[in-house]
Write a structure and sequence with these properties.
Blueprint lengths: L2 E13 L4 H11 L4 E9 L2 E8 L2 H10 L8 E9 L4 H11 L4 E9 L2 E8 L4 H8 L3
Antiparallel strand pairs: 1-3, 1-4, 2-3, 4-6, 5-6
Length: 135
């Protein structure tokens, strides 16, 4: 059974240097924050990191204490289900049929299950949630 959820995520820029990810993730771990997903990538001479917390309020509270300079709360989708050929294609096809442009997607499959995080344009979030049956 596939599930698709609409979740909060938070971005920030950080120095693109050795150990920065370990510092951020370790501090959040020590604050008891569980992340559903995390992604990071170079952005010019810096790095952008995106945090997708299990508990958005707890994450924001910890980020304040840690003095993290987060951007505004935004929306990401999380898809999870039994792995099969075309699992991700089905999501992309539904969005395309509805005229919704996907901005980015990261996906992985492990031990017969798949997971994906993906973004659509802010003006398309509600329409995408309806098309995908996301809660």
């Amino acid at each position: 059974m596939d599930t698709i959820r609409k979740l909060d995520y938070y971005s920030m820029e950080t120095p693109h240097k050795v150990g920065e990810g370990a510092r951020l993730l370790g501090a959040l771990r020590d604050a008891g924050v569980n992340l559903v997903a995390f992604t990071g990538f170079p952005s010019g001479r810096r790095a952008q990191v995106d945090f997708i917390p299990e508990d958005s309020a707890q994450f924001r509270q910890a980020a304040r204490k840690l003095k993290l300079k987060l951007g505004p709360r935004k929306t990401v989708f999380l898809a999870q289900g039994d792995d099969r050929p075309g699992a991700i294609a089905e999501i992309c096809e539904k969005l395309a049929a509805a005229g919704i442009n996907m901005i980015a997607m990261d996906a992985v499959a492990v031990d017969g299950r798949y997971g994906a995080i993906f973004w659509v344009e802010p003006r398309s979030v509600n329409k995408a949630a309806k098309v995908l049956g996301a809660g």
